[in-house]
């Protein structure tokens, strides 16, 4: 098991945990701003879900195995599970903080890919980081003046 593969497994677990929490919040958000939160969360989880498969395939391209169980994801992720239903605004705040965790794990994998001179993987991870910067902007903008 390589360091690059391990960093990608953490990035995969974080990405999947972020996807799952965002989808959970999409289903369960309530309140006066329901529709806006519901649509924002959907926009984010749909984009993030697309990346889950690609990260898993990048792990396999290293001839390593991708985690695929909730137990293994829970062992690897840096994101806490959501076991309660917070308010819509609290959901946005939680996702904003979790998005930063995903960016951190993607940065770690990117650094490892750069050291390994895995240019295609580096480019993919850089694109993922950019996508999460955009998610962070949307979440941060939603939190302004609240």
Descriptive terms for the model:
Ferritin; mainly alpha; 146 residues
How is this structure best summarized?
The chain is mostly helical. The chain has helices at 3-28, 34-61, 70-76, 88-115, 119-143. The longest helix has 28 residues, at 34-61.
Overview of the molecule:
This protein has a single domain, classed as Ferritin, core subunit, four-helix bundle (Ferritin), CATH 1.20.1260. The protein is elongated and about 50 Å long. Helix content is 78%, strand content 0%. It has helices at residues 3-28, 34-61, 70-76, 88-115, 119-143. Helix 1 (3-28) runs antiparallel to helix 2 and helix 1 runs antiparallel to helix 4 (88-115). It is mostly helical.
The tally of strands reads 0
Indicate the proportion of strand residues.
under 5%
Question: What order do the SSEs take from the amino end to the carboxyl end, as H and E?
Answer: HHHHH
Under CATH, the homologous superfamily reads: Ferritin, core subunit, four-helix bundle
| Helical stretch tally | 5
User: What value does the average pLDDT take?
Assistant: 97
CATH class: Mainly Alpha
* Separation of the first and last Cα atoms: 46 Å
CATH topology: Ferritin
Low confidence ranges: none
Return the domain count: 1
Secondary structure class reads mainly alpha
- Rg, rounded, reads 15 Å
Which sheet architecture does the biggest sheet show?
Answer: none
Based on the coordinates given, report the CATH architecture.
Up-down Bundle
Give the overall shape.
Answer: elongated
């Amino acid at each position: 098991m390589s360091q690059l593969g391990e960093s990608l497994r953490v990035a995969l677990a974080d990405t999947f945990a972020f996807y799952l929490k965002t989808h959970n919040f999409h289903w369960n958000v309530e309140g006066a701003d329901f529709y806006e939160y519901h649509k924002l969360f959907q926009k984010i989880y749909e984009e993030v879900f697309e990346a889950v498969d690609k990260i898993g395939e990048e792990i396999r391209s290293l001839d390593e195995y991708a985690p695929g169980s909730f137990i293994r994801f829970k062992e690897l992720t840096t994101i806490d599970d959501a076991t309660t239903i917070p308010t819509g605004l609290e959901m946005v705040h939680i996702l904003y903080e979790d998005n930063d965790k995903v960016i951190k794990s993607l940065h770690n994998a990117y650094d490892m890919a750069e050291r390994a001179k895995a240019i295609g993987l580096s480019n993919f991870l850089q694109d993922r980081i950019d996508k999460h910067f955009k998610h962070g902007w949307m979440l941060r903008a939603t939190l302004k003046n609240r």
